[in-house]
Amino acid sequence: GGTSRHMSESTQPLVSVVMPCYNAGAYLELTLRSVLSQSVADLEIVLVDDGSTDDPEAIVRAIGDARIRYQRTPPSGGPSRPRNLGVEAARGRYVFFFDADDLMLPGKIAAQLELMEREPGLALTFTNFRVVDPQGATLNDDFLAGYETFGRLRGLVAGGAGRLPRDA
Q: How many whole angstroms separate alpha carbon 97 and alpha carbon 35?
């Protein structure tokens, strides 16, 4: 028998969340749980540990969810290589990038999937994010507002025809 039979649809998740990780142990459990608790449960997390010294594998083992796939690599000095390795290992139809020290708000994956399914011509989607301090207080609730390129992209979607809305 060929190996293609082993990759049945039941084992191929709809979504792969690629998560580079380097010494994010202080946040990692909350981060992983925020992804695992999404309303879209048909997902895997490809956690690529980029040579951490704080044992993220122990956190993964303690959570004990088979949807987390742990992979360790020697330290590369930045998130690009672990992201690329995660994409290579991803089995999902959709790939989401997510950092190991972020929290995913409820409904994020479902909202982006709904948009991608409704607009099959889209190659990618992105969301804004909020910056919070370790106690959870919001420091910036519209992080992308200061980035001109993201403002233009947001306007393309909001305008629907490649035009920026007048108030953008």
A: 11
